[in-house]
Amino acid sequence: MRSTLQHHVVSSGIILVLVLSACAQAPTPTTAPNQSATSPAAQPSGPKGTIKIAWGAEPPMLATTKFQSGGSTAMAELALTFNSALSYIDINGLPHPQLARELPTLQNGRWVVNPDGSMVTTYLLRENAKWHDGAPLTAQDFLFAYRVYIDPDVPVSRREPESLMTSVEAKDDYTLVLNWRVPYYNAAALWYQSLDPLPRHLLEEKYRADKPNFVFGAEWTTDYVGSGPFRLERWDPGQGVLARAFNDWVLGPPKAAALDIRFITDSNTITANLLAGEIDMSGLPWFGPTQADGVRDQWVGAGRGWIFGSESRMQHADFQFRDVPGAQPALADLRVRQALMHGLDREAVAEVANLGFGGSVADVFLLRTDPVFPDVDRAIIKYPYNPTRGLALLGESGWRRSSVDAPLTDAAGRTFPLEIWGTSSGIQDATIMANNWKSALGIDSSVVSIPPTRAADNEYRASFTGVSTTNHRIVPENFVWNSKNLPLAQNRWSGQNRGSFIDSEMDGLLDAQLSARSPDEWRRTTVALHKRFTETVGTVSQYYPVDIVAARNGVKRQFMEHLGVGNRGLTCTLSGGIVAATEDRTQTHLSYQDLLKTGPGTIAGRYLRSFWQPIYRAADLVAGRAKPIRIMSDDLTLYRGQVTGDRGQEPRPHPSPLPEGEGTGRPHLLAFRCAHRGTQLSTGWVEGEDLRCFYGSASSSQPSRSRFAAASGFAVTRCASIWD
Questions:
Q1: pLDDT band at 708; cut points 50, 70, 90
Q2: Which of 76, 240, 448, 663 could make an S-S bridge to 644, C-beta 3.0–4.6 Å?
Q3: Closest by alpha carbon to 72, among 13, 127, 25, 1?
Q4: What distances in angstroms separate CA 390 from CA 74, 154, 334, one per listed residue?
Q5: Alpha helix positions (H), 288-426
Q6: C-alpha–C-alpha distance, residues 69 and 10, integer Å
Q7: Pairing of strands 100-102, 119-125
Q8: pLDDT score of 497
Q9: Taking the complete model, does pTM exceed 0.70, yes or no?
Q10: Contacts of residue 401, Cβ cutoff 8 Å, sequence gap at least 6
């Protein structure tokens, strides 16, 4: 059952350590740190070079995000650099032992399922596992962690799967026994955020003496001791972190000798540093589609680096169901929530947010690549953009709009005020939502920008009055719309169900999903859960944000080329022909995959872009018309100018060969989007030899004296041709 269910364990984006670490199937002997510097021959493949990484926010701690309620999607990327788990997940979603030397299975007898549904899983730990201070990592560290995670006096944001266990036993230092009161789908392959070990020798005394403040202090920041592939050397508050390779890591030393992680809060500054060569790569999710779109030609087109996009999260906007001051009571009406769904053009929101790098409308909290997605997609209720239907539903609930431009009012003539809250990263979404609802439904909507200083204030974030935008990494344990994730004073408002939505049926379905005993049971409960999710409309499910990493060519892993949309996070990878970072940041290996991929920035792609490439038959290209076209994974815009005498008239096909001179219907190739407003150029119109977008900006390609058309700025690296 384990191997069948493991595909549900997914992660956010490209985990930082995955980009920089190489793991071995089994631990290999390494020299001591002081020997590696003086005896390179003794360790020819040891860590080399320093990778400079931009991180968009200073993390509250370097430990597991089980103690963090805000920024978990992003902070998980950083936490995995400094921490290890019982297992990791490969690019196919399959589990492999990490701190465990072997995973429990029914066949080896270390996974026992009892008739009453309770279970026992026994993990045998690797005896070479160590903390960064050199202390051995043993079963006692897991036992201590279990006590911490289930203790109500310790502020823990998420207590699953530990709350599903009845006890944890350390049979000896390297035998860990977990007793489960109910079935749990991932009990035999626990990974990050699932019973993460804690250093008992460093933290037990503080736990006994000061539980409320246990997760605060230098032990979690400047003096942090973890167990991952990199250890903390220095933390400069407000500036960055320097991490060194941990040569005694349980799976062998990582590839890079050091990580220079810099806290750069402004995305434009990250872009400038990347182009100037001050940093080698951006960290997730701080380098967004806007930045990637702005540097595509300078970075990828010029062969300086690469951009990789994937999906791992769902952007959503929670409704407020608690009785907070100023709350909009009409949101308690299901018809009102359904109307708001119909009044939001989610496709337009996704297009603006992702700028064509990926992503689409998300109806449920499930990745499109999940094997169960087709069954879920057939069962759920969908809410396409339909203002007419939205107004009808509002009318049923007592709200009317007297004319197309009038505000929405109730029987007493009162308007429908609705605040949409968003952080600096979500303010664009909040603004689009407010404008949609105002124009389509007459809602008196307004935007509230959450100050950066209060973005981590849990109580404040849970006090929004109407709707609040946010996103979550798509894993089953992150399905927050349940009673266990309520933000309460006793958990320091850390629950991620910020709108306090509760539905008993959905609570039961979520429990059933997480305790599935077979693949069929998992599929059945997953379909039922998401069907109920769309019936209740406890949140505005919006779209899948695209996660983007930009990096210099020398900082690259072959497996990134394979992941595509909906990638699964890993904690390390093994594959032949790894393109790794070295001291001079050059490529050290080449695999056949490097010759098959032709996208921007790839080895084959850069080579092919040095030559003219046929892309379209000239006779089929209509004068005065534009069309999108995709060439070697590049999205571009192809159009033919108007023919002299045709201006203002219906365009007609121009015969080939083409005459020379201005206004003769010459073919042109441009970037996919307008550089001014980011609009898709193929939706614009042709004026003479120029292509004008909907906002009025004109673009044109460089003059050409042949039938060949090259996009502006492509020079030698991006060429194309039109043939007869």
A1: very low
A2: 663
A3: 13
A4: 35, 45, 12
A5: 289-295, 334-342, 346-354, 373-379, 387-396
A6: 19
A7: antiparallel
A8: 95
A9: no
A10: 391, 394, 407, 408, 409, 441, 442
